[in-house]
Amino acid sequence: MKKQTKFSELKNIFEILHGPDGCLWDKEQTHKTLIPYLRQEARELISAINDNDYAQMKEELGDLLIQVMFHSQIASKKGKFNIEDVLEVLIAKLKRRHPHVFSGVKVKSSREIIKNWNKIKIQEKAGTQSLKTNYF
């Protein structure tokens, strides 16, 4: 029997909360009704970072993760995407934007890494970037 990860446990909790016997308040939320909470949690994380309060940072990062899970769950119910899709897009983006790690691109400095990152980001936004990780 495969041990359940904390992430799979979290996904299961969100499925229960949004299921037939779940939380009415959770099920009533929309992307727009959650915006104030997203802003609040981001501000609280920034405050914890500025205070160098690692215990509070850990809690606030969890609260931001709740937002990610919430929005993914809402989108999933609408058949738009789910948390696995979010992770897939994130993983592909990280690999694309780190060609010096994943595609053998040679760099000499952090400045060059940032320059490459911004170039890739511009190409992505312009729609010229394919999903391949080798761009240079």
Automatic annotation (TrEMBL):
PANTHER family according to UniProt: NUCLEOSIDE TRIPHOSPHATE PYROPHOSPHOHYDROLASE
Superkingdom of origin: Bacteria
InterPro entries per UniProt: MazG-like_dom, NTP-PPase_MazG-like_N, NTP_PyrPHydrolase_MazG
Gene3D superfamilies, per database record: MazG-like
Pfam families according to UniProt: MazG
NTP pyrophosphohydrolase MazG-like domain span: 29-102
GO terms of molecular function: nucleoside triphosphate diphosphatase activity
Transmembrane segments: none
Database matches in SUPFAM superfamilies: all-alpha NTP pyrophosphatases (SSF101386)
A biological process from GO: dGTP catabolic process
Organism from which the protein derives: Candidatus Ghiorseimicrobium undicola
Name of this chain's protein: NTP pyrophosphohydrolase MazG-like domain-containing protein
